[in-house]
Give the backbone structure.
Amino acid sequence: MENRESNLLAIRPQLLNAKVSKNMSNDEQFQNKTIRPIIKLQGDLLIEVFKNYITKRKNTFYELTLEKRFDFIENAIQKDMKFRNSLKGMIIGQFTVEEYLIYIKNSSALNKRMMNIVKERLHDSVQLLEYKVA
């Protein structure tokens, strides 16, 4: 039988700029060692999930200015609990059991870090969210 933990760790991208040091808080270490690589791995999926979210909201996103699009992204992640929980599930589902046990000790703070990184990822990818006529 395959080892889930080693498979999960093997497919994660290595992020050279996500440093981990003893001076950092445990939350920051977890963010850089676990959360950032998972969000990078799931990046394309996160974008497609957000495109689907836009479609379900009658494509109003495409009529907004750039600043309002950033607000739309932030509101979706911060205020739509169903959507937020879906995003969290896509990330938490990539945790090893050991990482999950670390995560549940301070899930509230780690969720905030996680959603901020997802928000930044979507902001940075806003040009990929242009409306495409089929």
About this structure: The chain has a mean pLDDT of 92. Residues 38 and 87 are 12 Å apart (CA to CA).
